[in-house]
Amino acid sequence: MIKVLIVDDSLTIRKKIAKLIQQDPETIVAGEASNGKIAFEMVKRYSPDVIIMDLVMPVMDGQEATELIMAYQPTPILIHSSATNRGENYKTMDALSSGALDFIEKTCENWDKELLSRIKRAARIKVVTHIKKRKKEMLPDRTITSKLQKTPSTPYNVIVMGASTGGPKVILDILCKLPKNFPIPIILVIHLANNFQDSLAKWLSYNSSFDVKMPQNGEFCLNSRKTLFFAPPGKHLAIINNRFQYNNAEPVNFCKPSIDVFFKSVANASQINSIGILLTGMGCDGAAGLKQIRQSGGHTIAQDESTSIVFGMPKKAIEMKAAVDVLPTLKIADKITKMVMPE
Known about the structure:
CATH architecture of the largest domain: 3-Layer(aba) Sandwich
Low-confidence stretches: 133-153
Structural class: alpha/beta
Oligomer: single chain
Strand order of the largest sheet: 8-9-7-6-12-13-14
Largest sheet: 7 strands, parallel
């Protein structure tokens, strides 16, 4: 049985979640707390397998509670938030940087099935003590070059990433481990609710030394160092003639933007030599595209099962023999650093 601690200042919401959990044969309610301070004490007392954490609460909010729990009583935490509230969006991202595994919107479609599914996924993840990283006072490296040539010291000229469920925290972990003088851009396609896109960009930029932004349609894609570009919501992103191109074609793998659409365009770009990385996520989007990158001569990496919130996309890539390397989160940054910046 998966023991679940429910943390929310609304009695109505707590009872709604408790009823859902009690109806499932694999889950049980370990306890209920109306604020983060009570939750921390209950974690020490009951050792739950998963915590469902609200954000806006009296006494101690969800972000503070997450930071405290992950520092002293590491436990898988799911943030239960309102995507329509911009302030909660930022708090959600802060909670992820403090060690929370994932988040779910209170008003998402098929909320009941989605919440139970995420509880069961989170329960199998082994979490570790996590002291929240604080942003160092530094300016992003905005050095611009007209073109990044493929040279012996920099054989690759772009990193491309695809992610879905559980992706924000993994992406931040990778960015924070990359060196300050990382010489090439990173381009990301992530499946994320539209309301969180702006919050994600600002959160990643604040908590890392990367300049994070959405590219302009037609912008040259190889002209920035220490920059993370990310696909806009509701549009496919591709690389055509070394420039970013948006299109409004139909969803691929039920996704828009689609990682496969982006990865396949990268594989077909003659002047791009990429490292393709497929991270945690449900379904199979990105696996076929990753294989094309490998076949075109790029290096490919899939996140391993032990550190994936959902081992769907990377698993499919591994099964298709699309990944050269299968690595845990924290080793991905080390690998690409050695490949991009060999000694």
